[in-house]
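Blinded run. Sample ID left blank on purpose so nobody reads anything into the name before looking at the predicted structure. Input follows.
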Amino acid sequence: MQPLYRESKKHYEIFLTKAKHDPPHLHKSVEFVYVIEGTLEIGVGKELYHMETGDFAIVFPEVIHHYQAFDPIPGKVVYLMLDPAYTGSYLSYLQQYCPENPVIKEKELHEDITYAMNSLWKQRKELNSIMIPQAFVQIMLTHALPVYTLIEKSSMGPEDIVYQTMAYISGHFTEEITLTSMAKELGFSPYALSRVFSGTFHRNFNQYLNEVRLNYASGLLLYTNQTITDIYNNSGFNSQRTFNRAFQERFHMTPREYRKEYQKQHL
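Blinded prediction complete.
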C-alpha cells in the first residue's frame, strides 16, 4: 500500500465522508469535491483554500493536494473520483494544466454542477455503467473550466524536491527515519527539507510522518486481521504506547475501538 501516491482500481467512485485531515498525496484520477455541510480546507501546492457549504473544487490529475478540517463538529463532503480517460475532449486540459485556485464558491457555481453532484450521489447504488457519470462529469467540466484561471502544471514551481520527499517517505515510512537522515539520502540540506514540510505540507517532519503512519495503520485495522502489535510494528511505530497515544490524538479512540466501529462499514 502506497499512502502518498493513491490509485483506485475503479474507473469511477463517489463517496460521502466527514471533513477530516488528509496528508499531501497525488493520484491519476480527476477529483471533484463538494462540501454539503460545514467547512473544509483544501491545500494545493503551498496554498490553502477555504471551502464552505455549497462550495465546489476540482483537483486535476497528478497534482499534490491535501485536506484539513478545523470545525469542532466535522462537516460533510462528497468526493467523486474519475479516470481522466473518460473526460473526452477535456483530457488534454487535465493533463497539461491545473487551476490557479481550485475552489468555486457557491454563488459562482453553475446549477448544473450542483445538480450533477447531487444526482450522482443519489443514484450511486443504481449506476451500473460508466456512461452516466461520464456524461455528468463532462457537463461539470464544461461549466467549471471557464471559471478557472488555468496555469501550466510545470509553472507551479520547482516541485522536484517535493516529489522526491513524498516518494522517499512513501518507500521508507515504516523504517526509523529522521529529517537529517532523509536529507542526507536525498542530497538536500535539512533546512531545505524543513521548508518543504512547513511551506508545502503545512506541518513539520514528525507530524507528517506520523500522519502517514497512522493512515496506513488505520487501513490495516480495517482491511486486515493483523493484531494491534503487528500493525504498530508494520506501520513504523517503535512502541505500542507511542502508537496508542498518537492514534488516540488523531482519531479520538483506541485502535481496537476504531476497528470495531468502522470495520463493518468498509466490508
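Unblinding after everyone has recorded impressions. The radius of gyration is 19 Å.
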